[in-house]
Amino acid sequence: MKAENFSQLYSPGENLIVPSAEDISAYTPYMNPYIVDLWTSSGYGIYGDGMIQLVDPSEWNPLLERWLGRIDPTNTVILLSGFGEIYYHRDLGEHEIEGQLYKVEDITCLDLNTGKIRRIATDSKNFFEEWLCDPEVRARELKQAWFEHGLKEFGALKAGEIFYLDPVRFEGAGEEVINLEKVNAKEHLQFLYEILP
Predict the structure, then answer these.
(1) Helix 57-68 crosses helix 185-195 at what angle (to 10 degrees)?
(2) Which of 4, 19, 35, 50 could form a disulfide with 23 if both were Cys (CB 3.0 to 4.6 A apart)?
(3) pLDDT, tens digit, for every residue of 48-93?
(4) Around 32, how many Cα atoms within 13 Å sit in the side-chain half-sphere?
(5) What are phi and psi of 25, to 5 degrees?
């Protein structure tokens, strides 16, 4: 199960960390095999100069749990966008359809910049090979124009970094980038968690 579209659009960065089976053993019972394959064949780290990052759930699940107000082992953070949106996988259990049991899942986005949570996809492979590769998604959801501006100004992101778009200075400015900063992802997202109502 290889993400050909994904790997073509999001070239792996340097120093990717490939987890061992033991490292991910807490997540594999709830995780789609497609994502497990990405973890073990490609690894955690930067893809597409940082437009997305595959992340170690053990480092990011605590922030998700604080935001959601509960610990749920079936929720697993898998990806961080270049602007800090957190994408997580949800194992929704088995559901019977016409006498057959099917495993149900989805990929959900938590945007700490706005406080909104949205369901993105109902299939992990579709999320990586189609949704993330859709030109409109890259333009709108991943803020491609802003991201490319950040690359020109600051260079490629490193693991654990994101771009921050100043929302006050951006307000009313249309598509023009007004103020971008490169920040530490965990520190910045923790700050947003603390200040959002």
Answers:
(1) 10
(2) 19
(3) 999 999 999 999 999 899 888 888 889 999 999 999 999 999 998 8
(4) 25
(5) -60, -30
